[in-house]
Amino acid sequence: MAQQHGNGHSVQHHVAPVIHYVGVWLLLMLLTGLTVAVATVDFGGSLNTVVALAVAGVKATAVIWIFMEVRHAQPLTKLSVITGIFFLVILLVFTFGDYFGRSTTFTPLEEGWRSDGPHSVGTVPELEPKPAHAPAKGPAKH
Q1: DSSP-derived secondary structure for the chain
Q2: What is the rounded CA–CA span in Å between residue 66 and residue 73?
Q3: Ramachandran region of residue 53, left (φ > 0), alpha (ψ -120 to 50) or beta?
Q4: How far apart are CA 39 and CA 48, in angstroms?
Q5: CA angle in degrees (0–180, nearest 5) for 8-66-72
Q6: What DSSP line would sit under 52-71, residue for residue?
Q7: What is the pTM of this model?
Q8: How big is the CA angle at 89 (ends 74 and 32), to the nearest 5 degrees?
Q9: CB 111 within 8 A of CB 123
Q10: Phi, psi dihedral angles at 39 (to 5 degrees)
Q11: What is the pLDDT of residues 3-58, one digit of tens each?
């Protein structure tokens, strides 16, 4: 189907057959079943998160590439999608780098939680609230 623009150029729009949408739906249902199956398996440690994100990434790619028909889009649209994905990857790399760089061993104490790593979650004496009626320090003035 061609549309005429004001500058005299016509733009071709791709019309996908219904079978493509049914195929995307079936693929998404299959991947949703895979997501449920993966959630019941313990891969150990934080590998469950990585596997779940990988399956979600495949689903997102299928929706963007096939359902939203980015494969038939203009080059600038493709560049925009790739740029968004690139910055999402940067965000995830820094987030997981921060998460995995921290200590994960916590010990319960009566006054709170204490971490054995460099980032303590326990109470910090400098940040504890002061009593409302604290006695004045220093010599009393009469």
Answers
A1: -EEE-TTS-EEE-----HHHHHHHHHHHHHHHHHHHHHHTS--STTHHHHHHHHHHHHHHHHIIIIIS-GGGS-HHHHHHHHHHHHHHHHHHHHHHHHHHTS---EEE-SSSEEESSSS--S--GGGSPPPTTPPPPSPPP-
A2: 11
A3: alpha
A4: 8
A5: 20
A6: HHHHHHHHHHHIIIIIS-GG
A7: 0.55
A8: 85
A9: yes
A10: -65, -25
A11: 555 566 666 777 778 888 888 899 999 999 999 998 898 888 778 888 888 899 89
Contact 62, 27 (CB under 8 A): yes
Residue with tokens 């109470």: 123
What does the alpha-carbon distance between residue 119 and residue 141 come to, in Å, rounded to a whole number? 43
Residue 9 tokens, joined: 């150029």
